[in-house]
Predict the structure.
Amino acid sequence: MKVKKIITVLSIGAIIGFALGFVLSFEQFKSSFNNIIANRYIQYRMYRLIALDLQEFLNKWLIFTIIISFLLFMIWLLWKLFLKNIIDIHIKNKSGFRILVACIACSIFLFYGGWAINHYWLPHRFHPISLLGSIGIMLFTIFLGWSLIKVRWKIIALVLIIPLAILNLGIVADSKINISKKPSFILIVCETLRADHLSCYGYERQTTKNIDLFANIAYIFKNAYAQAPATMPSMWNIVTSRYQSAMPAKDEYVTIAEYFKSKNYRTAAFISQQHLESREKANLHQGFDVYDSECEKDHHRLSARRAKSVTDAAIKWIEQNKKWSFFVWLVYFDPHDPYIPPDSFRGYYNKTEKFSGDRRAKGINHKGTNNHLVTEKHKQFLINAYDEEIRYFDYEMGRLFSYLKRSGQYDNSIIILTTDHGEELGDNGNRWDHCQLLSQEEIGIPLLIKMPTQREKVMIEDVVQNIDIYPTVVEFLDKSHLPRYYNTLEGKSLTPLLNRERLNGKRFAASFWHKQQCIIMGDYKYWIWGGKEYLINIKTKEEITDLTIRDKLRSYLNKIYRVYIKKEKNYYKKTIEDLKSLGYLQ
Ligand SMILES: [Zn+2]
């Protein structure tokens, strides 16, 4: 059997396998392609994410091509060795055979390919773009037919297979090449953590021994705010840098994890929150290699898991990936109500178990409408239990930080610790829980940022917001090559503050929750609640009546609302320019 003939047969097999492979892996192509378009990866030139999205499809295509060509070769061999001798017929006319193959291949392409392109991506049949598309498909079919008749089999096979193999290998090689190591990023978001209950924020109890040590070499933002007093919107705010995200987080928003993935970082999230568990509900898994949201069912009746489980999983993953630059997002749950710390932390402040840390069991609702049920002693018990939960979270931070130090990651990483919102602890008319008010207790948050190799503590009084985290990290890592979508982020980089530039109270924070809106600038907070307006001095906590300040803040809030929340298109351009000229936007 001549080698030349074997090559020819293998080439024919490869050509048929290539076409059938595309048809068989088409569903995968469709979903990858739609995802790329929805996420605007082409527009933002995020080529690595395009390649990663197509990887599964390209793998399947190549594997199908190889398997089909091998199968066809085996059939031919069988024919040649045995069957041919039994049924002695074969096609003698070579060009006739080529025409037959060309007809079959062109028919498959024209009918299946043409139908699929028109069905999924082109507008209706008589639309000019569809007509042009169909003409393009016909022209390509003619070219395909001509090649199959005129060009040698092995050349066609090589032209088809080589680029496919290079694409597959290229993507694999890209993911294996360790870029010059850039700082890693560890984002710690602990649920329901009130800044004023952390000792590094001046709390009289030493609740956060380990976080205090971390704070000693970090930027401490004394006036940081969440954009919503609730988990879902607040988490979206953080990872998309948007004031308000539609539900679930939109594909078109490039999440902070997608940013890191596009930089060839290893990415992982360790989640302990039922709301963030579901991909359909939250859509926050975008860009993560690992999205570990396995919650212990019914813990805290909110399907969460203890801090230990999150820390253990994170340490294990970092240990396996520490040779790479990585982004890890940790979501802890413990201080969330009900306040029931693990046994070894229970009783540190509450010396007797007179009450339960689960106020619901006592019939106490969150709105403070049944004040008579909460005695002063019971209130103190709940606050004590809440603080014990914080001590437990802090203990876990101690474990995490000491691992990061041991493994050499502490100094090489940007580490940010914050929360999604605060908590009412019998405040504002004996309220409990959150998701209620844009009160200082619910939207005032801790924000600690440690840059790589940082050695000193810096207190920052300027007003900042949690949507500022994302642009800050991107600017720090990518200052000379900011991504194309950078200007669409709605937060503002904190870099000028980290560089100690004096901004004279120009920064603001805005929050939105149902019919409430508020803006905080300098010492003042303007708050619309229940159809009324309030102007509060946040330092003295007193309501004031300065019409000039009120009108100024009202006007800014109105602009932010119309640009980012209500998104009035005609209003957008001019207001963005106004805000830019005032120095509020870049
Ligand atoms: Zn929350």
User: Anything to note?
Assistant: The chain has a mean pLDDT of 86.
